[in-house]
Automatic annotation (TrEMBL):
CDD domains: HP_PGM_like. This is Phosphoglycerate mutase family protein. The record marks 174 as: Transition state stabilizer. GO terms for biological process: negative regulation of glycolytic process; regulation of pentose-phosphate shunt. Keywords: Hydrolase. SMART domains: PGAM (SM00855). It comes from Weissella paramesenteroides ATCC 33313. PANTHER family: FRUCTOSE-2,6-BISPHOSPHATASE TIGAR. The active site is at 11 (tele-phosphohistidine intermediate), 88 (proton donor/acceptor). Pfam families: His_Phos_1.
Amino acid sequence: MKTLHLYVVRHGKTYFNRYNKLQGWGNSPLVASGIQDAHQAGQKLSQVHFKAAYCSDTTRAMDTAKIILEENKNSREISLITDAKFREEFYGSFEGTNMDAAWTSAGAPVGLRTYSEIVDKYDVDKTKDLLKEADPWHDAENSEEFWQRVLAGFKRILTNPVLDDGDNVLLISHGNSLISLADRFGEGKIAVHERPANGSISQMELSKDGLTILTYNNEPVKD
């Protein structure tokens, strides 16, 4: 059975990150410190031989990926693969809204005011479902829509005929996407109240059985 070693990096800090705004399919550029986030991640990964590299089709992910690959000494021959399946959760009409205000709107029907309160009482998937219900257009992704898209992206990686058992793969991801992966595959060992740091590295193993998370937000996953 083929097992791939994923190095999953959250993109560098953007202007919307700075302003505490929801940023899903919407996009804003990396700030200066976000460019530095990418360089630092690239330096940490500079000796890893990547066989493939993936990211979403947002510029914040693509710019982060390009900087990391430029820093890498062993992966000059690979081309970056962009795919909308790896986009962040779509927040519908809440795109660009203050995060705290958005989650208050989502949690109000169940008497909750913050993202953390929703996660504590339910789980991360429930935050998606509640936000879709609160979106007047109901365009925001619910949990089923999110996972159908994202898991198809991981299947694309796993079925890439170029990749063999034990190969290393770079994937540039997003804050809520990483939280969602931690909640679904982390076996209850990972705190999911806050987004991982911009430029943070999480190591995972991908096989037909799913994902195993070894490190998250630069830290080992402890039993």
